[in-house]
Write a structure and sequence with these properties.
Radius of gyration: 36 Å
Protein name: Concanavalin A-like lectin/glucanases superfamily protein
Organism: Flavisolibacter ginsengisoli DSM 18119
CATH architecture of the largest domain: Sandwich
Order of helices and strands: HHHHEEEEEEEEEEEEEEEH
Keywords: Disulfide bond, Lectin, Signal
GO molecular function: carbohydrate binding; hydrolase activity, hydrolyzing O-glycosyl compounds
Number of strands: 15
Largest sheet: 8 strands, antiparallel
GO biological process, one term: carbohydrate metabolic process
Shape: elongated
């Protein structure tokens, strides 16, 4: 049987159509095998957003040290919100995530610059706020330890007390030698210094050494000690040494008499050639007959708040450590600050203004 004759033109068209169809199929197969875009890595951004949120939530705007300048939180929150939006965007590119991380990091750094710091913060060596513990808030690590006084004084212990604002457990009551002992550190033994303290003296039951109400001390008169004397005047003793020239500087505020059972802010500053006393932010006496710098102790002795020596250093024999010659505080103490420079009058006034209100 004879086969029908195939038209060459028709056959050519059929072949071309088949080839086109195969090309289409190949093209579709190639497109379908293209991998989906890799999701952006948001791990670092997530961690930074969490860190930033914690910083934002824990910050307060105001005018006191530890607070942030007005308006700082709003600017910070704008960038934080933008970073959160990128974090929540499933289609965010890696570039967008990287940029959001950089912007949020920069915003955090800028926000921290608006933190209001303590006066002369670089020179603040110890800040014992006494808010239920003897920890140092200066960042210098000079933490204290609550310590019983010597048995001769009655072996008292510091106990939590109301502060000058009436807030419970935000100050300490000291009596019978109870003290806060701070391990010796050369930073607590500078050649010039300032001590700022809130105090309330009481006399209830006090019978021993009533002429020496010691607030802070580093080796008594052989270093320095800050106290109230019998006339309720601020009193500082410093042993000054310059080569072979040694002198004991015993000076009081001369005119300011502090009432018992009353809160006061007291500051004393010392540098070679000048010793100044301040009460409630005001300069009450300046002495200029103290030429030598404060001595550097040859043998380390711990710094003490509330007693004039560490309890373990007292002896019952005559000498520099005789307990019968000792002094201790009776009453409340709060917000004790120690600087390794002599603050000026403007700085002292600023501390008082910052701390006299909540």
């Amino acid at each position: 049987m004879l086969l029908p004759k195939i038209n060459n033109a028709f056959f050519t068209k059929l072949v071309l159509l088949s080839l086109s169809f195969m090309l289409v199929l190949a093209s579709c197969k190639k497109d379908s095998s293209t991998p989906a875009p890799t999701p952006a890595d948001k791990t670092a951004l997530q961690a930074k957003v969490t860190e930033a949120q914690t910083l934002y939530d824990g910050s307060v705007e105001g005018t006191k040290p530890g607070q942030y300048e007005a308006g700082a939180k709003a600017s910070f929150q704008t960038v934080l919100a933008a970073a959160k939006a990128v974090l929540a965007d499933n289609n965010a590119t890696q570039t967008a995530v990287t940029n959001a991380l950089a912007q949020l990091t920069a915003a955090m750094d800028t926000f921290k610059t608006h933190l209001i710091k303590e006066i002369a913060s670089a020179n603040l060596i110890g800040f014992w706020k006494m808010n239920g513990n003897p920890a140092d808030s200066s960042g210098k690590g000079n933490n204290g330890v609550l310590t019983a006084g010597h048995a001769y004084f009655g072996a008292g212990m510091p106990t939590p007390a109301a502060d000058r604002f009436g807030r419970a457990n935000m100050a300490y009551h000291f009596d019978k030698g109870g003290n806060i002992e701070v391990p010796y550190n050369t930073s607590l033994n500078p050649q010039q210094f300032s001590i700022s303290i809130w105090l309330r003296k009481t006399v209830d039951g006090r019978t021993l050494n009533t002429d020496t109400y010691t607030m802070t001390s580093l080796n008594r008169w052989n270093g320095y000690k800050f106290q109230l004397q019998s006339a309720n005047k601020l009193f500082l003793t410093v042993k000054g040494v310059n080569g072979t020239d040694t002198a004991y500087y015993d000076r009081d505020d001369e005119t300011a008499v502090l009432d018992v059972n009353t809160w006061y802010h007291a500051v004393v500053t010392f540098k070679p050639g000048e010793m100044d006393f301040y009460v409630n932010g005001d300069l009450v006496k300046s002495w200029t007959n103290t030429p030598n710098p404060a001595i550097t102790l040859a043998t380390p002795i711990n710094f003490v708040i509330g007693q004039d020596l560490p309890t373990s250093k007292y002896t019952t024999v005559d000498g520099d450590f005789q307990v019968a010659w000792g002094g201790f505080w009776t009453g409340e103490l709060d917000d004790v600050m120690f600087y390794n420079v002599a603050l000026d009058a403007t700085q002292v006034k600023s501390i008082y203004n910052n701390q006299k209100t909540l």
